[in-house]
Design a protein that fits this description.
With about 300 residues, this protein is of the alpha/beta class. Helices cover about 40% and strands about 15% of the residues. It has one domain (about 15-310): Rossmann fold (3-Layer(aba) Sandwich). The chain is built from eleven helices and eight strands. The longest helix is centred in the middle third of the chain and has 23 residues, at about 180-205.
């Protein structure tokens, strides 16, 4: 179990508060899905500290608008936009091939949530393909760039939805079991945590540390566009019960904490929430499940993913 730490931040902290006083001048960052939701505020916070930020997005027009707005609000002109569709392995490969030089911060933020059953050209279930397989290919493809940074961080935006399901290795792609959107989403979010655990184990000797996190419940993003109305009511009631509602600015705080905080120096392979390392729990609505940080399962998923991607 990871040793817990004490931070000056809380669930109410914003990304701007977390990054305040940090100097990321000379650092280069990628934020996937950086043109919407908490991705925008993550990119803005990193840019405000002087980092060069690349918004890796599917919608280049939205990306360009976001980049211009971040330049205006931060005074940092080092904001670029690059095309990336995580459900398309050719797009991921093209992004990797186009990258040149070191990479200090990789924020795997983009995702799809609780969507109807859809499959990629390879036949992969769309949520798992986007949330895990695409980000896996991106991070491993950028390994040399991360290693060249001499101290990089990989940040996987997971979710408390990982509490809904472990990775079901017997049928990850829902080829034989009945598809259920939230179970599929939960499985992909558990995969995000296991990915961070194994990245940290495999890459730490290269100076690369990895973190996973739960941003909190944020209603103002379009991530919930696939919500069934009855399911939305249940999600709202649960969030109110555990007091987890956040603004977009608060929702980006833990991502920025994992990406930049000196309080995490020398650490890695942990799951964070509310700008701190989360407790490991087997019940309840908070913390991280043991199956999501199991090193044997993390290695098993890595091997499975390598085979799937060929």
């Amino acid at each position: 179990m990871a040793e817990l730490i004490t931070t000056p931040f809380s669930r109410e902290s914003t990304a701007a508060e977390v990054i305040d006083g940090s100097d990321l001048s000379g650092k280069r960052a990628i934020v996937t899905g950086g043109a919407s939701g908490i991705g925008v505020e993550t990119a803005r916070a990193l840019a405000s500290a002087g980092a060069e930020v690349v918004l890796a997005v599917r919608n280049l027009e939205a990306g360009a608008r976001t980049a211009a707005e971040i330049v205006d609000s931060t005074g940092n002109s080092q904001i670029r936009v690059s095309p990336l569709d995580l459900a398309d392995q050719k797009s991921v490969a093209a992004f990797v091939a186009d990258w040149d030089g070191p990479l200090h911060i990789l924020v795997n933020n983009a995702g799809v949530m609780a969507s109807p059953l859809a499959r990629t050209a390879e036949g992969w279930e769309m949520q798992f393909a986007t949330n895990h397989l695409g980000h896996f290919a991106l991070a491993t493809g950028l390994h040399r760039a991360l290693a060249a940074a001499g101290g990089a961080r990989v940040v996987a935006v997971s979710s408390a939805a990982h509490l809904r399901s472990p990775v079901v290795f017997e049928d990850i792609q829902f080829n034989h079991r009945e598809y259920e959107p939230w179970t599929a989403y939960g499985q992909s979010k558990t995969a995000n945590v296991l990915f961070a655990i194994e990245v940290d184990r495999r890459y730490r000797d290269d100076g690369i540390r990895a973190f996973a996190l739960h941003p909190g419940a944020i209603l103002e993003t379009d991530l919930g566009r696939h919500y069934d109305p009855s399911e939305l009511v249940a999600v709202i009631e649960r969030a109110r019960r555990i007091g987890s509602f956040k603004t977009i600015e608060q929702g980006a705080a833990t991502t920025v904490f994992c990406a930049s905080s000196p309080l995490l120096a020398g650490r890695g392979g942990v799951y964070c929430e509310n700008c701190d390392i989360a407790s490991v729990t087997s019940e309840g609505d908070t913390g991280v499940r043991p199956y999501a940080i199991d090193p044997e399962l993390a290695e098993r998923l890595w091997t499975w993913t390598e085979r799937a991607l060929g």
